[in-house]
Amino acid sequence: MEIIEKIYDVIVIGAGPGGLTAGLYASRSNLSTLMLDRGLPGGQMNNTAEIENYSGFSSILGPDLSTKMYEGAQQFGAEYAYGDVQEIIDGKEYKEIVTSSKTFRTRSIILATGAEHKKLGVTGEAEFNGRGVSYCAVCDGAFFKGKHVVVAGGGDSAVEEGTYLTQFASKVTIVHRRDTLRAQKILQDRAFKNEKVDFVWDSVIEEIEGDQAVSGVRIRNLKTGEVSTLEAEGTFIYIGILPNSDQFRSLGITDEEGWIETDEKMESKVPGIFAIGDVRKTVLRQVATAVGDGSIAGNAAYQYVEELKEQLEKTHA
């Protein structure tokens, strides 16, 4: 295991929109900054065809916004490196980040590892991702004006986002594996009262069909075994979301579901460890909210590092 000699002021784990913004703010405050990611800079933006709800752009390709943010993050000297983080070790003078091949040392850490939507795991889901398959109604709903869309799931997110989609779609069909919804009653009532919302009960989606884009879904009734095809131009999947935080649970900074809890400065229960974006316990997960989190955390990391250096100077004096 190679140990990197340099001790950074801040290491940002994850280089999505939040991580890139945190890197920008930290380096602009003259902190030695490293951004670590196990993929391309930009995170999930790289898998998004068009982004229409980020201020300053009427529409921009996800990879293009990723490039712009990455260039912005580097302008004040922030470094970038590949790293698949396995563990964080909290120390008094610095913290260690252990990856699969190297160990990095830093005075503060900003966690921006994001979250992943649970997948149906059916044929067509990956093939049509971004071409009719979506996991975000707020992001992609406007692309389905006047079209029929299917929503998979029966919890709060599925019912709430399904109702949200009715402002664009001509019809929304919610497919749920049970005969009752799991969503809060107020959300259920809104959906039942909405004339555009229909339900297919006791059923699961077995395949998402199409050629160049989604044209329908194949559905199987779990009670009767009957298989049918439902024509639709879009499929929104809401069967759960998982935070990318397993390697941080030993720090005691997550709730029972794995979301990292922070204060208003984005700081976790461990001093000097901050969390931003989708991995944080929050009410909305968007590019804009991740960017806001990143700016706050980058500034808070500066304040923490300055105070830490002062304390260490007094201790060693």
Question: Rg from C-alpha positions?
Answer: 22 Å
Write the H/E string, N to C.
Answer: EHEEEHEEEEEEHEHEHEEEEEEEH
Runs with pLDDT <50, length 5+? Answer: none
State the helicity in percent bands: 10-25%
The number of helical elements comes to 6
Descriptive account of the structure:
The protein is an alpha/beta fold and 317 residues long. Helices cover 25% and strands 30% of the residues. It is built from six helices and 19 strands. The protein has helices at residues 17-28, 62-74, 137-140, 156-165, 185-193, 287-316, and strands spanning 2-13, 33-37, 50-51, 60-61, 79-82, 85-89, 95-99, 102-111, 115-117, 133-134, 148-152, 171-175, 197-200, 203-210, 214-221, 227-231, 234-237, 241-243, 273-275. Strands 1, 2, 5, 6, 7, 8 and 19 form a seven-stranded mixed β-sheet that branches. Helix 1 (17-28) links the parallel strand 1 (2-13) and strand 2 (33-37). The longest helix has 30 residues, at 287-316. It is elongated. The model has no long low-confidence stretch (mean pLDDT 95).
